[in-house]
Amino acid sequence: ADIQENGVKLRLTVVDTPGFGDSINNEDAWQPILENIESRFDAYLAQENRVNRSKISDNRIDAVIYFIKPTGHCLRVIDIEFMKRLHTKVNLIPIIAKADTLTSSELEQFKAKILADINYHGIQIFKPVSDEFDDPETVAENREILSKIPFAVVGSEKLVDRPDGTMVRGRSYPWGIIEVENEEHNDFIKLRQMLLRSHMEELKDATDMVLYENYRTQKLLSMGHVQDNNVFREFNPLVQLEEERRAHEAKMQKMEAEMAAVFQQKVNEKESKLKQSEEELYARHKEMKTVLEKQRTELDEKKKRAESTARPITPLEQHPTKGKKKNIFSGF
Fold first, then answer.
1. Hey, is 277 helix, strand or coil?
2. For residue 89, which of 239, 214, 240 has the smallest C-alpha distance?
3. Residue 331 — pLDDT band, cuts 50, 70, 90?
4. Which of the two ends of the chain, N or C, has the fewest CB atoms closer than 10 A to its terminal CB?
């Protein structure tokens, strides 16, 4: 199935198992499903052992959605046996089908009984895990998804009319409407969110690093491949995953520190250049001021010397007689 949302394309492969548990004798009814999962592991292992591994087709099953009949009591024997045989090979996600056949209180009690049976028989189901590096929003989201497990869902392919005239996917009853995409009516939204949005990569990582690695180890040992512990060291996939995550966090912190140091160095260099430019401008201004003061002093000295060496001006030179000069000897 091809899913496209907001320009993002996702290709999903859905494998249906019609008729499971419908026989009178359901002994080994899970065997075809188990063989299908293991055959996909074997095909992937064969591709890994090829000389050219540039193109590997991954058809492994990342999750099994197991539908539980809404009996309201506890898990059936076939449910327990199925999950015990498959929980080491695939991520199990238990689902309560046709949840609208139970009341809210009956549903809560049924969920508690299912979880009690799962814990009692040591069955491992997929659960979102939070750590100290997750932000509060992710932790709250994981906690909310955990509170819904096992998911109680209602399915429908028909659109029904609501009282306000809008069309929704759901089931119509004389007493009202059950909406598939309404979190107040069932857990379908949370299931879809976990599978396709928030925890799809976690499901794939768990399949690749834990479930497949365990199967691969047992398969190679059964084929006679004995590992020399003096040469190779066994790795716990979960521990290795945790170490890789810590190494990634340390690498990111180191990169952030280096980027901060480079940024601070650039800031310091810029400040140093600005300070140097300011000092050069101040020194130039001081030098120009000194030169101007020196020139002014020299001009003042020249002015004083010019005034001191100048000949005094007589009154006659100040007011010369206009026209012809008078003869002072004309009275004799």
1. helix
2. 214
3. very low
4. C
What rounded mean pLDDT belongs to the chain?
A: 86
Q: How confident is the model at residue 115 (pLDDT cuts 50, 70, 90)?
A: very high
Torsion angle defined by CA atoms of residues 16, 17, 22 and 23, in that order, rounded to the nearest 10 degrees: 150
Judge if pTM exceeds 0.70. no
pLDDT of residue 1: 67
The more confident residue out of 161 and 233 is 161
**One-letter identity of residue 170:** G
Q: Yes or no: say if 87 and 78 are a contact pair by the CB < 8 Å rule.
A: no
Q: In what order do the strands lie in the sheet with 176-179?
A: 159-161, 167-173, 176-179
Structure-token pair, residue 95: 């689902």
- Is 218 a residue whose pLDDT tops 70? yes
SS3 readout for 106-175: HHHHHHHHHHHHHHHCCCCCCCCCCCCCCCHHHHHHHHHHHHHCCEECCCCCCEEECCCCCEEEEEEECC
| Predicted local confidence at residue 8, as pLDDT | 76
Question: What pairs with residue 3 in β-bridges?
Answer: 10
DSSP 8-class letter at 314: P
Q: Could you write out the DSSP letters of every residue in 288-312?
A: HHHHHHHHHHHHHHHHHHHHHHSPP
Give whole-number Cα distances, 301 to 6, 293, 310, 311, in Å: 86, 12, 14, 18
Please report, as a single letter, which amino acid is at residue 272.
S
